[in-house]
Amino acid sequence: MRLDKFLSQQLGISRSLVARELRAGNITVDDEIVKSGSFQVTTDKQVAYDGNVLTQVTGPRYFMLHKPQGYICSTDDPTHPTILFFIEEPLSQKLHSAGRLDIDTTGLVLLTDDGQWSHRISSPKHHCEKTYRVQLSEDITDDVTAKFEQGVMLNSEKYPTKAAKLEIISAREVLLTISEGRYHQVKRMFAAVGNHVCGLHRERVGEIWLDEELAPGEYRPLTEAEINSITVPR
Ligand code: URA
User: Fold this and answer.
1) 200: β partners
2) In whole angstroms, what is the distance from residue 39 CA to residue 8 CA?
3) Residues 36-62: what's their mean pLDDT?
4) Is 102 considered catalytic here?
5) How confident is the model at residue 10 (pLDDT cuts 50, 70, 90)?
6) Which of 5, 118, 185, 192 is 20 to 30 A from residue 135's alpha carbon, by CA?
7) Among 102, 104, 113, 114, which one carries the catalytic annotation?
8) From the CA of 176, how far away is ligand 1's center (Å)?
9) Could you tell me which CATH number the domain at 3-54 has?
């Protein structure tokens, strides 16, 4: 990759600002000042800006974040803080979330720069299961498990939801596993049976469980096994 493109991505600045930094002699490659933007950067080279080494990203990246309330999963929103606030990685702006949680939903968010991998999670074709811990404002009634198993009609939709599994923890706390990702799906499913979601926390996506060691706002890279659990067709 050209040095000016690399610097523009790494520093998040325009090519004209990059050109200025190059002209000023602020960029070194392997400790030598380089002023040409067309210089080819390869992975064995160490590029530094003002003496600070810029880490090169060499392959796709995969992370899990414990999302707290109050952050949105979109990566650029001028009005709300986004989940990228928590991610201290080079080129973090290249990461996207594989499926989204609402601003008030907490729990497992997967982040990657591998579009094919995230497509397997979010595409309706792949039926990737997600498990949510749900707090309800009304006691759960006995008929809801069967209704969710059969599928319920959501407001202004043409087709019922796919079979979903409900596990009752207590009168107002349940685990719900769904294999679709419709807009506000969990909240709308409970609204369809006359209840109201007052707390929502995602615990699982496919075979990946939220790491209990992660406090809200913390993240970690996925393990090889976690990454591969999504790429293997089920
Ligand atoms: N369903 C919802 O209603 N909200 C979420 O954030 C995720 C699933």
Assistant:
1) 134
2) 14
3) 93
4) yes
5) confident
6) 118
7) 102
8) 11
9) 3.10.290.10
